[in-house]
Design goal:
The chain has about 575 residues and is an alpha/beta fold. It contains 20 helices and 23 strands. A nine-stranded mixed β-barrel has the order 15-16-22-23-21-20-19-18-17. A seven-stranded parallel beta sheet has the order 3-2-1-4-5-8-9. A five-stranded parallel beta sheet has the order 12-11-10-13-14, sandwiched between helices. Strand 19 and strand 20 form a beta hairpin.
Length: about 575
């Protein structure tokens, strides 16, 4: 509806009831924006007004979020003068100062239950997250939505005044995650996760006891230890971190991780498809970690704050979830938890957190219309929708520290095997692994779109990012690259629909043909480099290229005849 003085004169739609959404933080506003459309679908009886409450320490980004969603927004101080007066106030933030009146206030959870103690903005003490002020409880206007009867018992044990004012509805967000599992492959493809790669999602809540609060370098360390041909790493960071510190500060602190290919999820919406796509969640005591565990994803706990509440579902999760040993082999721990996980591991945790999954929206619509004192629409009850496919990921990695390990007497008939492990060069300082094989070599490789000229001039191997249309085009690029960069030993380019050409500084051209799907040209180039360093002829041979523990490709190296005349 139009907002402002005499707004009713300009309205096209004249609803029977006015519902006000209290928008205070990004987290709480997103939860309402994601839930309300399904509840009010096609119903012209209800007019919705968004009121912006600027009093939170985490209010940065709320106005932009509402504007992006196309919401008409009124100032919070105008809410007390709204005409007609609101029939219902809905918020997913419990810390709102609603104006005097008798209209009910429906408080939706913006996480999973009452699982954390947070600073109280009204005093120097802490309070239980999710609980409205005593004054609102005493008024009898507040209605608190919960996802499980255990949360109601916990709430009443600490706040008896909430008795009779809880609504058992379930969790719409969890229902969406479960309903979206069939589209997992589409989310992975959209995020740029290859078929044989594992996606490790790091989840951090906010505050000093969160994962990032305790281990701000963990993202860079994981990217250094998880080979980029086998893994992608994503991050879901609580909106309060973005709001308190700002996107600029956060991206500056994570600059190396972002350059190393980190998939940093935007503050809203995209985290849910990423969680569905994840193979492993590395998390803390935040709700996202619990959502992942309850949905059946392997979990490693890298932090667990003392501000979490004993006896809750997240504490039950912590009792069975393995801890990430930051001094141990990170790669091995991730591989182990993925291999050893069983879907039943967190079944009891999910049963304690979510009541009757799949029915949350239907229950919530019934509660909403009862508070509005309107008959529920005759349309079928809403069900959880499949999540939309996220936007494409950030820019790809442009430079790698490449380790090659040569092993003799391969059992499948190849003359030798070369294990190639690539880590983003920008986080190489965090990689303290030491290869153990017959012959090991390390070199710097970069793509032709690397922006730092110092890296390009230092690289031993240059790789053309996009395949050349013809062999002639690939050969011309190789010649120009080697002439322009005297420190470069090899230049490699794939030919569209064909093999990979690797040019040596002495003018030789090696054709590398591999079995299986088309390879990034940096991989066969690493085989040629290893041959040169080991004193082997880099051509007229067959080798096994090993990429991680599960992928082997036969690579045949042939010397391309020099043009005559």
């Amino acid at each position: 509806m139009p907002v402002g003085h005499d707004a009713h004169r300009w309205s096209t739609f004249h609803g029977e009831r006015t519902l006000v959404v209290a928008a205070r933080t990004v987290t709480s506003t997103v939860r309402v924006l994601e839930t309300l459309p399904s509840l009010l679908r096609d119903d012209s009886r209800v007019t919705v007004v968004f009121a912006y409450d600027p009093t939170s320490a985490f209010n940065d980004g709320v106005c932009e979020l509402l504007q992006a969603a196309g919401c008409r927004v009124m100032p919070w101080e105008q809410l007390g003068h709204l005409s007609p007066a609101p029939d219902l106030i809905v918020s997913a933030s419990e810390n709102v100062d609603v104006p005097e009146g008798d209209c009910p206030v429906l408080v939706l959870p913006h996480g999973i239950g009452f699982q954390k103690y947070v600073p109280d903005s009204r005093s120097s003490r802490e309070r239980l997250s999710g609980v409205v002020p005593d004054s609102l409880l005493e008024s009898g206007r507040a209605w608190l939505a919960v996802s499980h009867p255990a949360q109601e018992e916990q709430l009443l044990a600490t706040h008896p005044k909430a008795a009779g004012h809880t609504l058992l509805v379930g969790d719409p967000c969890f229902d969406e995650l479960v309903a979206s599992r069939p589209r997992r492959a589409a989310y992975r493809e959209a995020l740029g996760v290859a078929e044989r790669q594992r996606l490790v999602v790091v989840s951090s809540t906010w505050g000093p006891t969160s994962l990032l609060g305790r281990h701000p370098d963990l993202l860079a360390r994981l990217l250094a230890h998880l080979p980029c041909d086998e893994y992608r790493v994503g991050a879901i960071i609580h909106p309060n971190v973005w709001s308190a510190h700002g996107a600029w500060q956060l991206r500056t602190l994570l600059a190396s991780a972002l350059d190393a290919g980190l998939l940093l999820m935007p503050t809203v919406h995209a985290w849910r498809p990423a969680l569905v796509a994840a193979d492993v969640v590395v998390g803390d005591h935040g709700s996202v970690t619990l959502y992942g565990a309850a949905a059946g994803t392997p979990v490693l706990l890298a932090a667990f704050g003392g501000d979490s509440v004993p006896g809750t579902a997240v504490h039950d999760m912590a009792a069975v979830a393995p801890r990430l040993d930051l001094r141990g082999d990170l790669r091995q721990q991730v591989a182990d938890v993925a291999r050893e996980h069983t879907p039943e591991r967190y079944a009891a945790v999910a049963a304690l957190a979510f009541d009757e999954p799949g029915h949350a929206l239907a229950r919530l619509r019934t509660a909403l219309y009862r508070l509005l004192k309107l008959p529920e629409p005759s349309s079928p009850p809403p069900a959880a929708l499949v999540l939309p496919v996220p936007d494409p990921p950030a820019s790809p990695v442009t430079a790698w520290q490449v380790t090659t390990d040569i092993t003799e007497a391969d059992e499948d008939g190849a003359e030798f095997s070369v294990a190639v492990r690539r880590a983003p060069a920008v986080v190489a300082a965090h990689d303290d692994d030491r290869p153990d094989s017959d012959v090991s070599f390390t070199h710097l490789a970069c793509a032709d779109d690397e922006r730092d000229h110092r890296v390009t001039e230092s690289a031993s191997v240059l790789v053309r990012r996009h395949p050349a249309a013809t062999s002639v085009g690939a050969l011309r690029w190789i010649e120009d690259t080697l002439a322009r960069l005297p420190g470069c030993l090899l230049a490699a380019a794939a030919v569209r629909g064909g093999c990979c050409l690797v040019g040596l500084r002495d003018g030789r051209i090696v054709e590398a043909a591999a079995t299986g799907p088309a390879l990034d040209p940096g991989l066969p180039a690493a085989v040629v480099y290893a041959c040169l360093r080991a004193g082997r002829p880099p051509h007229d041979t067959r080798a096994t290229l090993r990429i991680g523990d599960t992928r082997d490709e036969d690579v045949v190296l042939r010397l391309r005849p020099r043009p005559t005349g």
